[in-house]
Each structure stands twice: as structure tokens, then as C-alpha cells.
Design a protein that fits this description.
The structure is a homodimer of 257-residue chains.
Chain A lengths: L1 H12 L6 H10 L4 E3 L4 E3 L8 E6 L2 E6 L5 E7 L4 E2 L12 E4 L3 E6 L1 H10 L1 H27 L2 H18 L7 E3 L4 H8 L3 H13 L3 E4 L2 E4 L2 H8 L13 H15 L1
Helix pairs in contact in A: 3-4, 4-5, 5-8, 6-7
The structure holds a DNA duplex (30 and 30 nucleotides).
DNA sequence: CGATCTGTTGATATCCTTCAATTTTGGTGG
DNA sequence: CCACCAAAATTGAAGGATATCAACAGATCG
């Protein structure tokens, strides 16, 4: 659990420096970890959401099924991601969450989370920022699905995962863990498995990537970015603006008084 | 402004009943309205976001341009929508916001918004819920872009707009204001203008819709929903669960003391 | 009342899908 | 450690949905 709360901390620290107190509060939020096997549902469409959770280890995704059995993966969930922070306001989930591999999560009761956020303005701001970043990723994904070719979508997925794993301190910068079958990649990118296969082969032939056992080495990041037309700007990694930093400091001061 | 804050109030009231005090606080947040012509940018990619705003009248959209000049519309903004509530944490917008027609907005300074939310837990919850609903719409859109045919996407867009306009008290339930050119619809749905045109004609021939001057009558909502494979469930219109309501009431009580 | 934007139409091209094998991989039990 | 099995990856051929290109008609607006 120490390790995994580090992934969350590492991500949040890209935004604003957290105090030891913030970090401790965050750690104390998490209840005993729960484990799931690969390809198991953590939550199902229609369920009443019960808790938020931090993904500690493994990988999961949000997804929706269509009536004809096809699937759209909406979002990949990586270690350090906080999910469903405000889902207590919702009666029934509009999508499912399933694991891609053996995965463990740390549930967080909604009440406790709200209380800690009220007491720790800086942590609260970091979590808000994390949500903003998530929205930006959703937008990027929508551009990919709406306007990019198959090659662009695959390149985009590889780049996005690399940055996210970097931010969470899970990657060396050139290599990506991608524990997805080609059918799952297809579900994430709105393509067919066959076509994903062909694009990946083309990438390998062109020495853009190399892969073995669900690890991809991004051999030519430059070119991949150009193909996917992505930069890491949208991740808002450049930290918090000065005015916001001042506002957070004021909030902290007023709490201590 | 009275009218338009009604659109926001109407939307929020689908979630939880707001007190007169909440409503007043909301109204007092809004500064003097600003007007924009059609096809003008309200904010541009790369800009430092300065204020949140409520769209009072007209229609706008978030969009991203691609290098080759193509565009993806990410999201339509309707009267009553609150935008960029937490954008103060971001250095540079990753997308632009532009009007589709003559539009007016009421800017809201971020500091004031945060203060009012801290004082009005019920209003705060309603705004959080509104953000959750927005995320659900984004997911629905991703499913449409990733997995639906052109016909499905067009049907989905018409249905979504109908529900949203209904919620904001802007529609009679069978008719939709759609002040978009076919090229703009194409940008929203990841299609080409030509193909949008053909789908719309097919819909008209099949007596699914009728249109005149940017108003669409949805003649066969049943069938449109089936084609778009959409229901209004994802809008979470069924209100707030009991536990959450209790938590909100507690927060209000502790504020008054 | 002309210029320009929008909508419409037809012909052709292409990217991606579909279908149907076949091979390879990875996991499991003997 | 090997044999076996199911799942995943790969390949080829053919079809379909949507894009592209180009031209024209109709609407809208100064």
C-alpha cells in the first residue's frame, strides 16, 4: 500500500507540493486493500456506487457495452488513479469498471474523503486538479475517436500511457506496460482487433515500437507523437498558477487559525 | 438574466430542491453579462482561463483544431450550463470555446464561486452533480464516436439535445433548437458534412425528423432512441440518493450553527 | 441584389470491417 | 518438463460505410 499511495502522491506532486500532513491524511483514508483477478468487474453498470477507490496495483478500465455485444472502453485506470470521488451523488452507475489484469484497490468511504478534503485545502486542490487533468484526457480521447485514423489512435494510446505511467513514477520514459489484448486495445480505440493488429505490425516494421509480452518500447517517440498528433501539454503538468497557489495558502492559513 | 439563471436553476432542481437563499446566492454570483456574436471565440486554446461563466442565452461549444485544419467539437454548451468552474487551477486551456450563434454569458470570478460553494452545501452538491452529469454526457459521446454508425451518432445528438433543452426548461419535448450548420454537426460527430447531409435526408425521408430553419421536430423519438441506442438514464435525472441528502442536510446544519 | 455561405447531388476512392482460416502464445495439469 | 488446450495473434480475401472531390442549387445577409 505504501508503494501505491506513492503513485498517487507522485501524480499529485506534479501539480503542487504536498506536506507530510497531506500525505499522511491521504494514506489514512484508504481502507484495507481489496484484490481482483484479471477480467473481473469491480463495479457494474446499474449498480449503486458505494465507495471511491484508489487503484493500487494492476490496471482497470471503465467501459460500456452496446446492445450487440460490442464494447467501448472509456478510460484506462492506472495505479495512483482516484476513482468515483463524488459518485455518492449518483443512484446508478452508467458504466462498468473491470480489471485488465490482477488488480488491487484501496476503497475510500465517501464521507471520510469529504471530511479530509475539507480539512486539507492543498490536498483538495490537488485532487481537483487531478480531476481536471482527467477531463483533459477525456477530451483528447474524444478527438482521437472522432478525427484520427487508426494509426493516429494507436500512437495516441501508446503516448498517453507512457506519460501517465511516467507521472505516476511507473515507467522509465521509453517503455510502456500495456497488459491489453489487441481486442481490448480495439475496444479502447473504436477499432476492430484485426485492424489494431495490422497497425501494430506496421509500427513494428517501421521501427516505431518493439513489443514483447505486453510491454512496448517506444523506439521513435518523436514520430509517434507526430502520427498521434499529441503532446503532453494537455496533461497540465506545468503546475499550479501563482494566484491559485496564493488562494490555497490562504485557505490553509484560515484552517489553522 | 433572470430568465437564464432560471435555466441553471431548472437544471439543478432536477437533482435537488434548492432554497430561495441558494437561488439568490447563485444569482448574485453572476457579474454583468457579456455578449458575443455568432462564430466568435469566448476563450482560445492556450489562453490562461480567467473566469468561470454561465451561458445565459444562445449556444456555444468547446472544440479542438487539428493540424490539418479539421475540427472536433467536444461539447455543446447550452443556456444554464456552468463552465470552467475550476479552471483557475490551469495555466493554459487545452481547447477553445466558440459561439454557434449570438450568445451572452455571465462571468463568475473563481474566488467568489468558491466562497459561495463553501457557504451553501446544498448548492455545492448540486453543482458537483451537474459536473457528474456532464462527465456522463462525455462518456455517452465517446461511445457514439467510437462505436456508433453515422445514423446512430446523428440520432444520439438529436436526442441528447432534446433532453438537455428539456431539463433547462427550453423545449416542449418534441422539438429541438439546433442552430448548427451541417458542417458543425459533422465536427461534433466525427463525420464529414456531406455524410451528415445524407443521413439527415434519410431521416427526413423516413419521417424520423422534420426540420425548418435550425429547428428539428423529432417525429419518432422511439425509433430515434433505438437508432442512437440512447436512453436518458445517463443524465442521472432521478435525483439524489437518500444518504447523500442526509449528508448535505448535516453540512447545512453545521453551517448555520 | 450580388456575394458568400450552406445544403444537395453524383462519382469515385479508401480506410476499415467482416469473415474465415491458420499459427502462435501462454497457461495448466499430468 | 512436456503435452495439451484455449486464448490471442496473424493472415488473406472481399465487402461496406464513410470520405473525398467537384459541381451546382438554394438560402441568407449585408
Amino acid at each position: 500500500m505504501g508503494l501505491a499511495s506513492n503513485a498517487l502522491l507522485s501524480r499529485l506532486s506534479h501539480f503542487i507540493r504536498l506536506s507530510e500532513g497531506d500525505a499522511r491524511a491521504l494514506r489514512e483514508l484508504m481502507s484495507a486493500p481489496e484484490s481482483f483477478a484479471g477480467h473481473e468487474d469491480i463495479a457494474r453498470e446499474g449498480d449503486r456506487p458505494h465507495v471511491a477507490f484508489v487503484l493500487l496495483d494492476g490496471m482497470a478500465c471503465r467501459y460500456r457495452m452496446l446492445l450487440d455485444g460490442r464494447r467501448q472502453i472509456l478510460d484506462l485506470i492506472l495505479p495512483g488513479d482516484l476513482c468515483d470521488a463524488r459518485a455518492d451523488l449518483v443512484r446508478a452507475a452508467d458504466h462498468s469498471i473491470g480489471t485488465m489484469m490482477a488488480t488491487s484497490i484501496a476503497p475510500i468511504p465517501h464521507g471520510k474523503l469529504a471530511a479530509v478534503r475539507a480539512l486539507h485545502p492543498r490536498l483538495d486542490a490537488a485532487l481537483v486538479w487531478s480531476a481536471i487533468e482527467h477531463e483533459a484526457m477525456q477530451r483528447e480521447r474524444m478527438v482521437a475517436l472522432g478525427r484520427r485514423t487508426a494509426r493516429g489512435r494507436v500512437a495516441y494510446l501508446l503516448c498517453e500511457l507512457m506519460w501517465r505511467q511516467n507521472c505516476a513514477g511507473l515507467s522509465d520514459g521509453r517503455t510502456v506496460a500495456l497488459p491489453l489484448t489487441q481486442a481490448e486495445i480495439a475496444d479502447a480505440l473504436g477499432l476492430t482487433p484485426v485492424h489494431v493488429n495490422r497497425v501494430l505490425q506496421e509500427f513494428r516494421r517501421g521501427r516505431l515500437v518493439a513489443s514483447s509480452r505486453h510491454r512496448f518500447a517506444l523506439l521513435d517517440l518523436e514520430r509517434l507523437q507526430r502520427i498521434g498528433e499529441v503532446s503532453s501539454d494537455y496533461l497540465h503538468l506545468d503546475g499550479v498558477p501563482a494566484e491559485a497557489r496564493r488562494a490555497i495558502a490562504r485557505a490553509e492559513a484560515s484552517h489553522k487559525s
